[in-house]
Amino acid sequence: MLNKTDRKLLAAVADLHTVPQGAFNIRKNGEGIMRRSTANIEIVPKADKPGIDILVKPGTKNESVHIPVILSAGLQDLVYNTFEIGAGSDVLVVAGCGIHNPGSSEARHDGVHEFFVRKGAKMKYVEKHYGEGRGSGERILNPKTIIEVEEGGVVELEMIQLQGVDQTKRDTEIKLQANSRLIVTERLLTSHKQEAESIITVELVGDDSSAQIVSRSVAKDDSRQLFHLNLRGYARCRGHIQCDSIIMHNAKVSSIPEISAYHTDAALIHEAAIGKIASEQLLKLMTLGLSEKEAEEAILEGFLK
Amino acid sequence: MLELRDVHVTANDETGTVTVLQGINLTLEDNKIYVMTGPNGGGKTSIAKTIMGIYRPSRGKILLDGADITEKSITERARLGIGYAFQQPPRFKGIKVKDLLKIAAGNDDNGLHCDLLYDVGLCAQDYLEREINSSFSGGELKRIEIASLLARKLKVAIFDEPEAGIDLWSFQKLTETFAGLREKYRGTLVIISHQERILRLADRVILVSGGRVSEITTPEKFLAEIEIVTADCRCRTDCIKGEVANA
To answer: Is residue A212 part of a domain?
Structure first.
């Protein structure tokens, strides 16, 4: 059922080299092709629209669920996934989408992921995007992620796109209740004529909630990037946005951090920087024996790690 | 052995072309420690950067073990065994201390990395996994810079004001490390410094001022001359104070 290309895509987006331990659902070309639930994590297909419900029982600890999507043809796929992360649980969710487009038609995946992270639950969500294929058809990925974090919940998001996606619009909305915590790590690399847009809106609505967003990107060739990172503090809360971009060649990067406070005890910070690789960094690594190209690669690799 | 023969370096600024180095002639022998000192802006760092290939001579030659390396790039010189620890090292977002030491040493021998950090007065447990970013103080950054050079097997190692920004306790450790290099290091060691304790480590002190090598001497003789100049200054100061008091 999975061919060599599928396996390569799965390895790229979900580090899957074999059928994963725990619960999983693999979606290929618009259809669920492999699925497994476990005693604590149930995966149920939606009856009214394409997609699945993932139900994590309260108290589930140290379990994972993989739900990668792969496209190996020029088609448009739209999916709605809903996650119920039970109170007090601690789980890893690995999503991601890989596209192999060998043809001239557009291959596009739009995913809407909705999470309910219940009281005291902890979730790490990893979403990787990857594209390949020699066809002229565009590879497009538009994820929409909505997360509601209840009291005391902890959510860690890793959003990574480093290769082969021609167009992406990533829209992420998160609401944090009292004592909940959010850590977002975003890594983005664009090249050629690729375009990427990332909108992250975080609402800190509960007292002592906190959010940290660290976004790093590299824009090469003629690519375009737009970041709109938005923190809104409605309670006694802390938030920090750090958005760094390295710009190269003829690329264009726009970074629009926005912080809004609606409470006197909201403490919000944003930092944004765009610049080329510092020549001192290149010189330092060259004095250690790296060529200029190797030095540049080492700096970019470290920056996007 | 490294030789600089009649090396001139020029640079362009808003006033036009400025001469940075004027006819530098130096022979730096193997297994010797040289301390380069002199007034600020005199040309010490420019000599170091010219040896490393960061600055290109407008005239003259640089020879390493008799081979002309004047036209070699920074990378080529590094691969031939020349190393330079920057006076103001850069910070890197994303590159960790262990990554830098891996690049420098050419391996990820954790034990070696720990030893290198110990030699510069840092605890590996606290530093190996840290990014070399703005969270580092100037002194910490400097010590990591020195460790990155100690990691390499070099024919010529140049340390540019290694003591700058380093606290007294770590400076003591650093001095011991340089003293220890005399025993185990088989190449040429060049340290740019103004510190007496570093000067005393030297086989030869090179005084650089006005873009020229003014004097090459022993540390004893150099420090004795400094004593005379200092005493003279003190005497002049006392005289002025006396004149003011009697006025």
So the answer is: yes
Q: Could you tell me the residue range of the domain that residue A264 belongs to?
A: 4-277
Instruction: At B183, list the tokens.
Output: 């025993």
**Contact status, residue B207 vs residue B214, Cβ threshold 8 Å:** yes
Question: Helix, strand, or coil here: B178?
Answer: helix
**Residue of chain B whose alpha carbon sits nearest to that of A300:** B94
Could you tell me which of B89, B103, B173, B78 has the C-alpha nearest to residue B132? B89
What is the C-alpha separation between B53 and B40, in angstroms, rounded? 21
Q: Is the pTM of this model over 0.90?
A: no
Helix axes B138-150, B97-105, angle to 10 degrees: 30
Would A77 be classed as within a structural domain? yes
Residue A152 has pLDDT above 60, yes or no: yes
Position of tokens 């790093």?
A216
Distance from CA of A152 to the nearest CA of B (A): 29
Spelled out in words, what is the top-level CATH class assigned to the domain B2-246? alpha beta
Closest CA to A220 of A184, A196, A256: A196
Answer yes or no: do A286 and B75 touch at CB < 8 A. yes
Tens digits of residue pLDDT in B118-140 = 988 888 889 999 999 989 988 89
pLDDT in tens, A87-133: 999 999 999 899 998 888 899 999 999 999 999 999 999 999 999 98
Complex confidence, ipTM:
0.90
Task: Determine the Cα–Cα distance for residues A1 and A72; give it in Å rounded to an integer.
Answer: 13
Q: How many CA atoms lie within 13 A of A218 on its CB side?
A: 23
Query: How many residues in total does chain B contain?
Result: 247
Kindly state whether residue A290 falls inside one of the protein's structural domains.
no
Please report, for chain B, the start and end positions of each structural domain, with discontinuous segments joined by +.
2-246
Asked if B80 is an interface residue toward chain A (Cβ–Cβ < 8 A), one would say no
For A102-208, where are the E strands, in sequence order?
107-117, 122-132, 139-149, 154-163, 167-176, 181-190, 195-204
**Per-residue pLDDT tens digits for A237-246:** 999 999 999 9
Q: Which of B73, B90, B152 sits opposite A284 (nearest CB)?
A: B90
Contacts of A219 (CB under 8 A, 6+ apart): A190, A225, A245, A246, A247, A248, A251, A252, A253
The tokens describing B176, both together, are 């011991």
In a domain, A267, yes or no: yes
DSSP B73-93: -HHHHHHHTEEEE-SSPPP-S
For residue B95, which residues of chain A lie inside 8 Å, CB to CB? 298-299, 302-303
Question: For residue A2, which amino acid is it?
Answer: L
3-state SS class at A300 = helix
Of residues A238 and B181, more confidence is placed in A238
Number of compact structural domains in chain A = 1
Q: Which two tokens stand for residue B113?
A: 């990395």
